[in-house]
Amino acid sequence: MRRVFIAVFAVAVLLASATPGLAGHAWNTYHWEDEPGDPHDGSITLTIVDDLSAYTALYPAVIDDWDNSDGSPGPLTLNSSSGTSRPSACDNDATDAAGATIAGTIHVCNGSYGKNGWLGLARIWLGPDGHIDAGVALMNDSYMLEPGSSYNDATAQRHVLCQEIGHTFGLGHQGGKKNRSCMNDRWGLTDPRYESPNGHDFDMLDEIYGAASRGGGGGKTKPCNPKSPKCGADAEVAPRPGGGWIVTYTVPVAHGRH
Fold this sequence. Notes:
- By secondary structure, this protein is an alpha/beta fold.
- 17% of the residues lie in helices and 21% in strands.
- The protein has one domain: Collagenase (Catalytic Domain).
- Strand 7 and strand 8 form a beta hairpin.
- Helix 1 crosses helix 4.
- The chain starts with 30 loop residues before the first strand and ends in a 6-residue tail after the last strand.
- The model is unreliable at 1-22 (pLDDT under 50).
């Protein structure tokens, strides 16, 4: 799990899974590896760090939505903790050094990143074998906390926060008005019915991490082609010194139908 990295901005993720597609919205073959020595038993434990200075009332509910720590069916168990110092990755630093400092963890951050066209961003660092080594999910306060903005809304904020975190697990976007999930990138930004994961999201996580999945097996050693719709319309890919890639994926301001 911990090696050379690929950075990914994300509000969407599409991955070709190892088993027949039930949900069909994974992101390429990006996934975390089981901890060394852990048996591949159909679940995985990830460490997620709360570096937020806002959205603090929404964060616990989002983590609870994704988590398996309560014993409910699902392949994820999230060990959530509070950050002690803000890593450079939270400052939208996509360098190798930023990924190295958060290796083995997902950090959830916010900041006034400017009127740059994106509401949120997900980034992952991949090792040369295709495993996710580190991840970060960013919330852009410049839009999401702007007074009078339609984005300054608890439902919209929860939708984006949930989606960005979901990308760091290896999930892509769902489409279609009937898919009421926070991973929907076209519908429901301000609709409470779209502020949490749905059954399709957990079907996809089962395909990626469940007992019948490839488990600790690696993913593709090359990232998705940013010109391909499967990579995401707002993805950027760059090679990393020493091997690996940096991929950036953002949630655009033009989210689709609010």
